[in-house]
Design a protein that fits this description.
Elements: E1 4-7, E2 12-17, H1 28-34, E3 39-43, H2 50-64, E4 69-74, H3 76-87, E5 92-98
Parallel strand pairs: 2-3, 2-4, 4-5
Antiparallel strand pairs: 1-3
Helix pairs in contact: 2-3
């Protein structure tokens, strides 16, 4: 399964995180709109555990992002972005939370 989608041109400094479960790919319209002006990476998560998704995101970001990255997360993606940034603060420039539940 494809877990990284790129839109626009380098540098790829903005990453999008979808809600879930079952919302993989929901950030594509946002990616397409932002890619007119920015390089965008849409990260799709496949791991079943929270720790697994954090580590999967770490691998994805270190593989293809121009660091530090701005993360934009929707719903569960906002939580994932928050948890990721707390574990890897040096990799995250900005964190934008959309419909982040209890936050």
């Amino acid at each position: 399964m494809e877990t990284i989608r790129k839109y626009g041109q380098k540098p790829f400094q903005i990453g999008l995180l979808h809600g879930g479960p079952g919302a993989s790919g929901e950030m594509k319209p946002v990616a397409m709109n932002l890619s007119v002006d920015f390089g965008i990476i849409e990260f799709l998560q496949t791991e079943k555990s929270i720790d697994g998704q954090i580590e999967e995101l770490h691998k994805q970001i270190t593989l293809c992002a121009d660091l530090p990255i701005t993360l934009i997360g929707h719903s569960w993606g906002a939580w994932l972005g928050f948890l990721f940034a707390s574990k890897y603060p040096d990799l995250v420039k900005k964190l934008i939370l959309i419909s982040a539940g209890a936050f």
